[in-house]
Amino acid sequence: MPPGRIERGCILFEGKDLATLDRDAMRAIRGDRIGMIFQEPMTSLNPVFSIGSQIAESLKIHRGMTHRSALDEASRLLDMVGIPAARRQLDRFPHQLSAGSASA
């Protein structure tokens, strides 16, 4: 039995009602087109893996990227959200980021 149920209404994402999708269809969307990243890196990211490897993992799984291209994209994404010196942050671990900003 699923942990919850939708009694009425719908959940629209890109014109699709997510509540009606089967497990495989949701898996294709989850982690690639939609996801959630909590703000606090100490509780959101695995402390034993670098930030870059954790972002790249999702890109490799969902987009079929090579390791190198996934790291390049991870750097671009970090830059997009305003992380300073994004390329240098890839090798850092979650505890090395401050809550306010990443130092270069």
Would you tell me the structural class of the helices and strands?
mainly alpha
Silhouette: elongated
State the helicity in percent bands: 40-55%
Which blocks of ≥5 consecutive residues have pLDDT under 50? none
Oligomer: single chain
Number of helices: 5
Radius of gyration, Cα only, in angstroms?
Answer: 16 Å
Give a description of the structure.
With 104 residues, this protein is mostly helical. It folds into two domains: 1-35, no CATH class; 40-104, no CATH class. Helices cover 40% and strands 4% of the residues. The protein is built from five helices and two strands. A two-stranded antiparallel sheet has the order 1-2. Strand 1 (12-13) and strand 2 (16-17) form a beta hairpin. Helix 3 packs across helix 4 (67-80). It is elongated. 13% of the residues are buried. The mean pLDDT is 85.
Topology:
Elements: E1 12-13, E2 16-17, H1 23-29, H2 41-44, H3 51-63, H4 67-80, H5 86-89
Antiparallel strand pairs: 1-2
Helix pairs in contact: 3-4
Structure described in brief:
The chain is mainly α and 104 residues long.
Key terms for this structure?
104 residues, mainly alpha, 2 domains, two-stranded antiparallel sheet, 5 helices, 2 strands, elongated
